[in-house]
Structures are given as structure tokens and as C-alpha cells.
Design goal:
Number of domains: 2
Number of helices: 17
Radius of gyration: 26 Å
Length: about 625
């Protein structure tokens, strides 16, 4: 495959946005330098990745220049690329509305884009196009008698330039709050996001509650998402020799057919400032589980697929813990609200989190409305659910992001919320050990293999901007343990905070969730919070008690980029737990030596855990929703 073949696949409609369908613009649109930094980054990252040349780069180190497995770029060259990227921020080929400037008579649409590109970038792009007929894969060989092609250096310097030009993209609503001036690319992205939201809203049942399918899946504009996409990023890994260690602000995403990756942020004029705590109220509902709520799915005779049918089966989970009638649902909402009020006596609550499969859409929506209207400090509601706002059945994670919206009544800003949902990527497989650990023998035959009876919808991840400079992402149980396909995405974007919703036993540092969390806290540096319901903890503790073993009531586990895992306890005489996180600014450095001094990491405050217990005046609610 030649370099030009990759460029043509990446930009099937050309590298430059067209103002019209004039065929005379076709050639210049196809192969001119991409005028938008995210597009330039995308093609350079694709070429670096597919050619494999990035791993042998020795930035600023000339001692191994003669090795066939190393090539060199000087500090002076990299400094020039960095300055070019910063200057690119000052060149704006767009109007204030985010639309391309256009003058059909003088044909300034294309030339306007051209003049916005720094001169050095045009030089490097010309060097790349001069070599465009060469093979993409260039093997220097063990003899070391071949010099590295000039286009290697060109694409790497353009990658640095594009990355620097996009500092803060997607993370700040107000350029004045950004650590450096937010690029004009972000202004275009905001226009795109608003159009996406308008086109993706479902039939909302609430005037100030928006349910939508996020469509902002590519920060690039001409790059073909069937080949790759570009996303903003927040953390730069400290270790390894990968594309991820070469950038601070942009990340290369896999083709959308592998996994959909969406950037979600509110449409408000501001986000919460990062310098404050983030206090999370964890409600481990359901508190108890009856083994009969696990049941074999009725799939017919069971002789399907010959030998597989003898040991292979499917199970459903009946959400018998959910209140059924309207009056019972109102009581449950009251129960949650009382927990929020009790927790708020000692600190402001910013986030409410429920475990995997805890709620359904109907109850989630009722709770979101209540939070929007009565609990003004809460910014995020997250929960597992058995369906989504469209009525699709399965295993979902729901996110509600609360903010002061642009909708107004008179001169007053109106608080609203935006909900997104996505399905679990992998089915739960229950084996004999788990069946015996949770006491499910009466419901599920231990001699069979049991698979969770859910559809696997198109795989997606939603990266939600919840504070300026910070994003969170949510996984569901097996999504953490099975690295395909989402872990490449997570490591590339580097979310500051990751929620993992579970239906599992006690969260301990020697269990599977801690092992898999550690991989993400090392690379890219994400802080990980796992949360399970107390139902299976109660079941496993019943087995432990019968065996004379020590009981454990750890509903959560938190691990950040520097500290050991910390368990979060919620014993039976309590109904929830609170944990406080504090944002810290850290220095991060790319492999080529560029430093970023304002990266954000969320770490647990010392002695910040607290259990929440309702008073005797609410005992009727406690008994109703914590006992079988």
C-alpha cells in the first residue's frame, strides 16, 4: 500500500471542505494540506500507526542514529513544530458562527483555508506529498545502510503541530477558563454538537429533560470515520512507547464499526470549575437478592447446536426489587431523596451512583426530574438499568448530566438535564464457582454454563465532560474485565474518572476488579471507582457465615494513579456511602519531551469516606427497600 492510498481512503471527499460541487475544486480538495488541525492529526497518526515508524523514534537523542532501528528528530525541529501549533490557534478561517468563510466570485473558500495553515506545515505536507507514491511500510533492515525517509519526520512534526493547536479542545466552555486559549476548532465543534443534539433528541416527556443519542463521534471534519476518528484526550500515559504517549490533546480512535465513541458535554455557558471537590453518594441497591430472581430462560427443548445444548444455557434476572406501582415508586424516590438530604448534612453532594441493573428507565427518569428540581448541587446521576428511554430491553448504563441550560423563562436560566444510555458490551457468564459463592444452586444448575440473556447492541462508549478539564466514562462489569474492544479507546482518550457498575461480591484489593482497574490507573492514569449492589454481597456473606469465615461489606473500590486500592464499606445498618474526591493538577510529559502542567487527576481525600444512615423517622422506608 502506498502513502497516497491511505490518504485517499482517509479523505474520500478530499482534505479540504468544499463550498460547492464545482468539479474544478476537486483536485485541490483531494490532496491539499488539511486546513483543520484535527484532520491533519488524524492522517498523520494513521500513517505513523500503520507504518509502525513511531516506535523507533529517538526524539532529541542522536547517539543511536546509526542503528537501523532508531531515527532522530532534533529538539530545534520539535520546538518549531510546537510553536507552529500554538500560532495555528491565532489563524481563524471561520466566521463567528462557525461557518467557513466563502466568496464564490473570488474563490476564497479554498485559498482561505490554505492561508490559515502555518507555513511550516505546508512545507512538511509538500514533503509528504512528494513521497506519496512510496510504499507505506519501509523496512530499513538489520544492515542499517538505508536512511529513514524524509516523510517520517514530516508526519511526526505535523502530528506535534496539530496536537499543540488543539490544546483544551472539547473540555472548556469558556476560553477564559482554559489553561491556554481554546482553539477555533472547538468553536466549530460546538456548532456541530448543537446540530447533533437537535437531530438526535428523542421524544422527551419533560420540557427540561433531554434524552438523546449522542452523535459527536469525531473531532475531525473530513476524516472518514470508517477508517479512524479523532477525539480530545485528558491524560497522557507516563509509560510505554505508543501513539498515546506522543500527544497531550488529541487521540486516534479505531473505526466506528469496531466501537462507537461519543463526546458528550452540556450546552451550558459554563461547567463546574475543577478546583472543587467531587462528592459521590453510592447507593448499593438492591440490598438483598432472592436466588429465585435468577431464572433459566425458556428457549425450547434445549437440544440446539448438538453438544453445546447439553451444557449451554441462558439466564434472566427478574428485577423483583423494583417498586411496581406508582405509589411504591414515589416511596422509593422519597427514600433516595432522604438519603441525599442525610448525606448533604456534612458535605455537598455532586454525584449519585447506583450499581449495575439497579433501576429501570421509568424510575431513573423520575429520580432525574426530582434531582433537577430539588438538589441543585448534584451534577451527575449514573445507574445501571434494564432498559433505556426508547424502551429497548437489555443491560444499560444511564448518565444524566445536570446543568443550567440555555433555555430560559424570562431572564432566568433554567436547570435542565441531558441523558445518554449505552448497552453492555459483553454478557455475564456464571460458572459453578459463582453459583456456589452466591448461593444460586436452587435457581441455576451448577453443572451448566449460564450466559446472561441479553442482546449485544452496537458497542459504544460515552465520554462525558462533567467539570472543566475533566471527563468521566462508565463501564458495566464485564466491560472492565474484557479488554476488547473498549480498552484501546479508554487508554487513548484517558478519562479522568471511570465508573464501573457491577453486580458482584465484596470489592476487595485481591479480587478481579482491582486487578483490571490497576491496568487503567497505570496507563493512561485514570482514577477508577467500582460499585456493586449489596445483594450479592449479602448472599456471599451468608455462605461465609455458614463456613465461619469473616464477613465483608465493601460495596466499592477506588484506585487512582498513585495510591493503593481503597475499599468502600456499607454495612447492613447503613443504606449508602459517600466518598470525596479532590482534583489535583499534575505535570505530564509526552515521549518527545513536551510538558503539560495542567493535567487533572481525581484522588480520594484522606478520611473522606462516610456511611449514611436514615433516622428512625424513616424506618418504614428503610424496611421497605432494604429487606426482602
Amino acid at each position: 500500500m502506498r502513502i497516497i492510498d491511505v490518504i485517499n481512503m482517509a479523505f474520500p471527499t478530499g482534505t479540504v471542505p468544499r463550498s460547492d460541487n464545482d468539479a474544478s475544486e476537486r483536485e485541490i480538495n483531494e490532496h491539499s494540506v488539511p486546513p483543520i488541525p484535527t484532520d491533519l492529526f488524524g492522517i498523520c497518526a494513521i500513517l505513523l500507526e500503520r507504518s509502525g515508524v513511531y516506535h523507533s523514534l529517538m526524539p532529541g537523542c542522536k547517539t543511536l542514529e546509526d542503528s537501523p532501528y532508531a531515527w532522530y528528530i532534533s529538539d530545534v525541529e520539535m520546538l518549531g513544530a510546537r510553536e507552529a501549533g500554538k500560532n495555528w490557534n491565532k489563524l481563524t478561517p471561520y466566521t463567528s458562527t462557525g461557518k467557513p468563510r466563502s466568496d464564490r466570485k473570488k474563490r476564497k473558500t479554498v485559498s482561505g483555508f490554505e492561508t490559515a495553515v502555518p507555513p511550516k506545515v505546508r512545507e512538511w505536507w509538500d514533503a509528504l506529498m512528494k513521497a506519496s507514491g512510496e510504499p507505506l511500510f519501509f523496512y530499513r533492515g538489520p544492515d542499517g545502510d538505508l536512511d529513514p525517509p524524509e516523510w517520517w519526520k514530516a508526519i511526526f512534526l505535523m502530528l506535534i503541530t496539530a496536537d499543540e493547536a488543539c490544546a483544551g479542545i472539547g473540555l472548556y466552555s469558556n476560553a477564559a477558563n482554559a489553561p491556554s486559549a481554546v482553539t477555533w476548532v472547538d468553536d466549530i465543534l460546538k456548532v456541530s454538537e448543537r446540530e447533533d443534539l437537535k437531530n438526535s433528541m428523542s421524544n422527551a416527556t419533560d420540557k427540561y429533560g433531554i434524552q438523546h443519542r449522542p452523535l459527536t463521534d469525531n473531532a475531525a471534519f473530513q476524516l472518514n470515520p470508517d477508517i479512524a476518528s479523532v477525539h480530545p484526550k485528558t491524560r497522557t500515559p507516563k509509560v510505554g512507547c505508543t501513539l498515546r504517549t506522543l500527544t497531550h490533546n488529541l487521540s486516534l480512535m479505531p473505526p466506528r464499526g469496531q466501537i462507537g465513541s461519543y463526546w458528550v458535554r452540556s450546552l451550558s455557558t459554563h461547567y463546574g470549575k475543577p478546583e472543587t471537590d467531587f462528592n459521590i453518594l453510592m447507593i448499593p441497591f438492591p440490598y438483598m437478592l432472592d436466588p429465585d430472581w435468577f431464572e433459566s430462560s425458556d428457549l425450547g427443548s434445549g437440544d440446539h447446536l448438538n453438544e453445546r445444548g447439553k451444557t449451554w444455557n441462558w439466564f434472566d434476572i427478574k428485577q423483583e426489587w423494583l417498586p411496581k406501582t406508582n405509589s411504591e415508586q414515589k416511596k422509593f424516590i422519597e427514600f433516595v431523596c432522604e438519603l441525599i438530604k442525610e448525606a448533604a448534612k456534612t458535605r455537598a453532594i455532586h454525584c449519585i451512583a447506583f450499581p449495575e441493573y439497579a433501576l429501570n428507565w421509568k424510575i431513573f427518569e423520575q429520580l432525574a426530574r426530582k434531582i433537577r428540581d430539588e438538589f441543585l448541587t448534584i451534577e451527575v446521576l449514573i445507574s445501571g438499568s434494564s432498559d433505556n428511554c426508547k424502551g429497548d430491553q437489555g443491560n444499560y448504563v444511564m448518565n444524566a448530566l445536570f446543568y443550567d441550560g440555555d433555555k430560559s423563562e424570562g431572564d432566568e436560566k433554567v436547570r435542565t438535564y441531558m441523558v445518554t444510555s449505552r448497552a453492555k458490551h459483553h454478557r455475564w457468564r456464571i460458572d459453578r464457582e459463582q453459583i456456589e459463592t452466591y448461593g444460586l444452586e436452587t435457581a441455576l444448575d451448577p453443572d451448566l454454563i449460564w450466559w446472561e440473556h441479553i442482546p449485544i447492541a452496537p458497542r459504544e462508549l460515552h465520554h462525558v465532560v462533567f467539570r472543566e478539564g475533566s471527563i468521566f466514562t462508565a463501564l458495566i462489569c464485564e466491560d472492565l474485565a474484557r479488554s476488547d474492544p473498549c480498552h484501546r479507546n479508554l487508554r487513548a482518550v484517558g478519562p479522568n474518572l471511570l465508573f464501573v457498575l457491577l453486580m458482584d461480591g465484596p470489592q476487595l484489593s485481591n479480587r478481579w476488579s482491582a486487578r483490571y482497574s490497576t491496568g487503567l490507573t497505570d496507563d493512561p492514569g485514570t482514577s477508577v471507582l467500582t460499585l456493586t449492589s449489596r445483594g450479592l454481597i449479602q448472599s456471599s456473606n451468608d455462605i461465609r457465615a455458614a463456613a465461619g469465615e469473616t464477613l465483608d461489606w465493601s460495596i466499592g473500590l477506588f484506585k487512582d494513579d498513585v495510591s493503593a486500592s481503597v475499599s468502600i464499606s456499607c454495612p447492613p445498618n447503613f443504606q449508602a456511602s459517600v466518598m470525596s474526591l479532590n482534583v489535583e493538577r499534575v505535570d505530564e510529559t509526552t515521549f518527545d519531551g513536551r510538558k503539560k502542567k495542567n493535567a487533572l487527576t481525581w484522588r480520594q481525600r484522606p478520611k473522606s469516606q462516610e456511611q449514611v444512615k436514615l433516622g428512625t423517622e424513616h424506618q418504614h422506608l428503610v424496611d421497605k427497600f432494604t429487606l426482602l
